[in-house]
């Protein structure tokens, strides 16, 4: 198993190298002059050139790239010009917030979409099937920022049952002791139920926003995979053997339909990590998405490069995890393949 993991990580190195090169070149194509921005609107041309030289932007692009690679080899993602702090520290501090939001949204989507897809397949053509199609179409059609603003208006402004969309905790609560960086989990580990409930209340609406967006692909893939499994010969044989309907659906059909659902789950998770950028802005969520978008606006190269590289590494690890889960769900799938 360890040898397989090592081989898969080595196989991912060319992809990560490609991400580093493309990200570096794309950030250099961003509109605007970082030296002019950070020198200030009243800066003279000489002052702007001094700032450019201090940032190393007066060197050729290949020289800048070699310097960037040297920094990466030492685990240095550079310095954010906006905050003045090392990018790696900002990413490590903010990543748990993005992961907590993404995991909560994905958990909600799985809890709703998988049973919905199974019911739609078992009762194909019924009102449940049609309702699933409507929910899936609506979920994928609504942009995440629109859904977020709609939920804030409904639950915070009109019904007043949700807290203000102002980050991970309200002003009356203090962050729990740091274990994982996930506030709800850390508060529960510390036995602080009140803080856990406060963090959960802040998390509910942004997670619901992401979850609604992720419902569509999961529900549709579950329905399609279940329809294929229910029409298979081994399911007809199980029915002819007199097995109960629940056993046929959950043990025979659903287990064989899980592989495509797992594949979609991995794709949706990696997609949500990028899609939560707008959700974090709407709910003032202090994750790496909002950090990257703020850096992108002012052409602050280092945070943008660090964000994209972090996303690439997470994507590689996620695909590796999905491959391992394949073997657990269906032992016929050989990890070596």
TrEMBL record:
One of its GO terms (molecular function) is dipeptide transmembrane transporter activity. Residues 95-326 form the ABC transmembrane type-1 domain. Gene3D superfamilies: MetI-like (1.10.3720.10). Coiled coil: none annotated. SUPFAM superfamilies: MetI-like. The chain crosses the membrane at residues 9-30, 101-122, 134-156, 196-216, 257-279, 307-329. It comes from the Bacteria. Keywords: Cell membrane, Membrane, Transmembrane, Transmembrane helix, Transport. Its main location: membrane. It is a multi-pass membrane protein. It is found in: Cell membrane. Belongs to the binding-protein-dependent transport system permease family. This is Peptide/nickel transport system permease protein. It comes from Stella humosa.
């Amino acid at each position: 198993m360890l040898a397989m993991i090592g081989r898969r990580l080595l196989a991912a190195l060319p992809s990560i190298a490609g991400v580093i090169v493309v990200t570096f070149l794309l950030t250099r194509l961003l509109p605007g002059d970082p030296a002019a921005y950070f020198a200030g609107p009243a800066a003279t041309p000489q002052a702007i050139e001094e700032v450019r030289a201090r940032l190393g932007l007066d060197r050729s692009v290949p020289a800048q790239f070699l310097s960037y690679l040297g920094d990466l080899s030492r685990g240095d993602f550079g310095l954010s010009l906006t905050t003045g702090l090392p990018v790696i520290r900002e990413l490590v501090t903010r990543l748990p917030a993005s992961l907590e939001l993404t995991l909560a949204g994905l958990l909600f989507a799985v809890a709703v979409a998988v049973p919905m897809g199974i019911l739609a397949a078992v009762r194909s053509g019924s009102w449940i099937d049609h309702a699933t199609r409507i929910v899936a179409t609506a979920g994928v059609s609504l942009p995440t920022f629109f859904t977020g603003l709609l939920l804030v208006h409904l639950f915070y402004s009109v019904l007043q049952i949700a807290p203000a969309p102002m980050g991970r905790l309200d002003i009356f609560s203090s962050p729990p002791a740091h274990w994982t960086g996930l506030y709800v989990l850390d508060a529960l580990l510390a036995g602080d139920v009140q803080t856990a409930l406060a963090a959960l209340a802040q998390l509910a609406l942004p997670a619901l926003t992401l979850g609604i967006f992720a419902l569509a692909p999961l529900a549709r893939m579950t329905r399609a995979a279940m329809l294929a499994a229910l029409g298979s010969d081994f399911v007809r044989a199980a029915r002819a053997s007199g097995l109960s309907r629940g056993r046929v659906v959950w043990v025979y059909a659903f287990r064989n339909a899980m592989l495509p659902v797992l594949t979609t789950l991995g794709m949706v998770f990696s997609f949500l990590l990028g899609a939560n950028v707008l959700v974090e802005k709407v709910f003032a969520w202090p994750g790496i998405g909002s950090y990257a978008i703020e850096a992108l606006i002012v052409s602050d190269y280092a945070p943008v490069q660090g964000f994209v590289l972090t996303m690439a590494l997470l994507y590689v690890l996620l695909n590796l995890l999905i491959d391992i889960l394949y073997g657990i769900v269906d032992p016929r799938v050989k990890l070596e393949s």
